[in-house]
Design brief:
15% strand, 350 residues, eleven-stranded mixed β-sheet, Isopropylmalate Dehydrogenase
């Protein structure tokens, strides 16, 4: 067998609070961990110098594609993408579109990343919105959670689309033939939640997915009830960050207790809980666009940047996008739209 084909990842050099230094350091970590990785840094060439002086082991596996503009975190993402065609996020998306990169990673504005990739790559057939997805650990195995920040405004049909793309992703990436799909709301009983959630429940029940009904927030870390949990980007983002904050609190408390029991105990606890660390989750895949796109936290550390790059490379190696297209197309072909008469009416959350 010949040498594996390099995986080419375009990285937004100016994305994130610590750019470009944190991005450059993260790229160096990713390159050292993956010998078949090639990174294209998208940004001003004068800023694309790594802080590490010793780079002989990764020399030749990174290039720079110039981009002179950046869409800031405080800018309107649509306006920024439309007016700043030479922004780092737009140039990175075009590299994927034109086949010069297999995937892209951005640690900057989520809205800008979504707008740039939708404009340049388009959406998969049957979808009108993309969603950010993370796979989080639970007591019963991995749980696919979406949306975690792509679109804040909830809408019933959007949640139905999330169910379809989430189920297709769980099949394509986790190998679950018939993933169980749950709708996140304020109670597991039928009819719980606001009008959007009640409307969405009727739509999900009519989809060609294994809909298990309503689930609650504690079903995410506990697992067992659903392989895919669907919500809107506003709620999902709050839930994810709340889980990350809880982990940080528990890890700190455990570290304090373990300090008095010696280094071996501390290492054992660290190894047991490392998969829960927010930096292991790092970024979210932008599902629904016709390309592999990973969006990370704006405050990502170098370790988190490296994890985002590794996540993108893994998705490319596993052929997630073509498998996702096939799984989604099969679901879309069988989709039955719920009749309007069956949809619940309005009212306050129950």
């Amino acid at each position: 067998m010949g040498r594996p084909v390099p995986i080419r990842i375009a990285v937004d050099l100016l994305g994130g609070d610590g750019a470009p230094e944190s991005v450059l350091s993260g790229v160096a970590v990713a390159l050292r961990r993956d010998a078949d990785l090639h990174v294209t840094l998208v940004g001003p060439p004068q800023l694309a110098q790594r802080p590490e002086p010793d780079t002989h082991d990764i020399a030749g596996r990174s290039t720079v594609v110039p981009a002179t503009q950046v869409v800031g975190m405080d800018e309107d993402p649509l306006r920024g993408v439309r007016t700043k065609l030479d922004s780092t996020v737009c140039v990175a998306a075009r590299l994927v579109r034109d086949g010069a990169a297999d995937a892209m990673v951005s640690i900057g504005s989520t809205g800008a990343a979504m707008a740039a990739t939708v404009f340049n790559l388009g959406l998969l057939a049957g979808l009108t919105r993309a969603a950010l997805v993370v796979t989080v650990p639970s007591a019963a195995g991995p749980v696919v959670l979406l949306d975690v920040g792509a679109t804040a405004a909830p809408a019933a049909d959007r949640l139905a689309q999330h169910a379809m793309i989430g189920a297709a992703y769980a099949t394509a990436r986790l190998g679950i033939p018939e993933p169980r799909v749950g709708l996140l709301t304020i109670g597991e009983e039928v009819g719980k939640g606001d009008r959007v959630r009640r409307h969405a429940a009727a739509l999900l029940a009519a989809l060609p997915v294994a809909f298990v009904g309503n689930v609650e927030g504690d079903d995410v870390p506990r697992g067992g009830r659903a392989d895919v949990i669907v919500t809107d980007g506003f709620t999902g983002n709050i839930l994810l960050k709340g889980m990350e904050g809880t982990y940080a609190l528990l890890a700190g408390l455990v570290a304090q207790e373990m300090a008095q029991h010696g280094e071996s105990a501390r290492r054992a606890v660290s190894a047991a809980t490392d998969h829960l660390h927010p930096e292991r989750i790092a970024g979210a895949l932008l599902l629904g666009v016709n390309g592999v796109v990973v969006v990370g936290h704006g405050a990502s550390s170098p370790r988190a940047v490296a994890a985002c790059i590794a996540q993108a490379a893994s998705a490319v190696r596993d052929g997630v996008l073509p498998r996702l297209r096939d799984a989604l197309a099969a679901l879309m072909a069988d989709r039955v739209v719920a009749p309007v008469a069956s949809l619940p009416g309005g009212g306050a959350p129950r």
